[in-house]
Amino acid sequence: MFDTPEAKFAIDAVREAAQLTRRVQQEMCTEALTKGDKSPVTVADFSAQAIVAKRMAEALPEARLVGEEDAGDLNATGEGRETLAQIRHFLEAHIPGVSSDDVCRLIDHGNAKPEGKFWTLDPVDGTKGFLRGDQYAVALALIDGGEVVLGVLGCPELNDQLTPELGGSGALLIAKRGEGAFVTSITGDDDWKPLQVSPCEEVKETRIFRSVETAHTNTGQLGQLSGAMGVEAQPIPMDSQAKNAVLAAGGGEMLVRLLSASRPDYREKIWDQAAGSIVVEEAGGRVTDLDGKPLDFSHGTSLLENRGVLATNGHVHQAALAALKAIEA
Predict the structure, then answer these.
(1) Strand extents, DSSP E, the chain
(2) Does residue 83 share a domain with residue 29?
(3) pLDDT tens digits, 17-69
(4) What is the CATH number of the domain that holds 142?
(5) Residues with catalytic annotation?
(6) Boundary-marking domain end, from 194, 213, 241
């Protein structure tokens, strides 16, 4: 099932991008890093998008990529040029002789229009996790007619059992619409293992994923939701679409992206949800917005028709939707 040109490209590109981002993290995320300095994740973001774009141009020259990054000011300021030099340094091992102009062209290859059939990429999903040396993900998905049909996640700080293992083998996941979700190690030999969500039906035993960073979680509303559901289990702190990976493997039952009171009109970006959503669904779970509507990827770079996101093992989904309706009443 993974021998199609699109699946082969996605597996190889995410594997390479994940290994590249891990190298950036190991070399740049030191204890001496100044608080608030996001330069390592900036370098990793641009480098990963460039390598995915390069491999796409080689394997699928007609394909279109909608990435999170654009080259923008990399050549315009002194800080930008310094960042560009760092990106070139890390890409040199993957693209020998790559020039600054090459780097910018590759990054901007990800500026395609999000319509029809296209790929979407979040080169480093989970900025704070990356900077802490913790969980993050490389997320690539193929969208066709507003539906995610293929998704690949690279989670360098999970192992192939989809439990946290910092500096371990890393996890590579793939899901294809109608064909299931599978995992192998990033460094492995493609010994793919099928994924299945948790069979838990007891709502009180629901393990809810929450972001490590409190700024990313409406903790008050999440507490209200847990109370309304009668949840007794401890939440699982984790960043990025690595949460989707662990949910798909049965390591928890629910994750939710609530709306912030300060940003009630915010809509999720497609690259933040596409790969993770199909991985959960193909492992037997369910993904909707907070109103129970399926996610609609046909409205540009944002999920304009969806409020927030709810992903579960399926068994606790209705209870979660009912609780959401109750606390929003």
Answers:
(1) 65-67, 117-125, 137-144, 147-155, 171-176, 180-185, 193-194, 208-210, 236-237, 254-257, 286-288, 309-312
(2) yes
(3) 999 999 999 999 875 455 567 789 999 999 999 999 999 999 999 999 999 88
(4) 3.30.540.10
(5) 45, 127
(6) 194
